[in-house]
Write a structure and sequence with these properties.
Elements (H helix, E strand, L loop, with lengths): L1 H15 L18 E2 L4 H8 L15 E11 L2 E10 L5 E13 L6 E11 L3 E9 L4 E14 L2 E8 L3 E2 L1
Antiparallel strand pairs: 1-6, 2-3, 3-6, 4-5, 4-7, 7-8, 7-9
């Protein structure tokens, strides 16, 4: 009896190896790739002026000099503009995450539409200018975390939220 029970368990475990790993993936979720775009200084500053909360820094450790994130629209594209400026002694500057969120006009809660991680470089500042094709019928915003790293024990992160647009 033990041999039969052991054989059945072994066969079941062996068959589980053939189950695809994406068997429970979400179906029907549209994903858009964002594109790098080139904005003039005037266009970039005009987009950033859409968000009155940029550069409000009540408590900082001094690694991030200034920060901003804002969105604009161009046809059916969401234009994302952001900047993190750091002190000269940092080793990394940018964003640890940028999340595009959306909600229908009848909903009070936001859902994540696209998430991008680790957008930083070894420089004193990082400028983000992206375009993302989005479906209409939603409100959009971007939440992000500005990031600066001086050493292993000296980092700074600031959460920020862009303005909201309806498509």
């Amino acid at each position: 009896m033990k041999k039969i029970f052991t054989l059945i368990i072994t066969i079941c475990l062996f068959l589980t190896l053939f189950i695809p790993t994406d068997a429970f993936a979400a179906v029907g979720v549209e994903q858009s790739e964002w594109q790098d775009i080139v904005l003039s200084d005037e266009e970039f500053e005009k987009i950033l002026s859409n968000n009155p909360n940029n550069n409000i820094m009540p408590h900082t450790s001094g690694l991030i000099d200034s920060y901003s994130i804002a969105i604009s629209k161009s046809g059916s594209n969401l234009i994302i503009a952001g900047k993190t400026s750091c002190v000269s002694s940092v080793t990394k500057c940018g964003f640890t995450k940028v999340i595009v969120q959306r909600r229908s006009s009848s909903s009070a809660s936001w859902s994540n539409y696209q998430t991008y991680n680790d957008l930083y470089k070894e420089a004193r500042s990082y400028t983000l200018s992206k375009s993302l094709s989005v479906p209409s019928g939603y409100q959009y915003r971007v939440i992000c975390t500005h990031y600066a790293k001086k050493s292993l024990l000296s980092t700074q992160k600031i959460d920020n939220t862009s303005n909201t647009l309806t498509f």
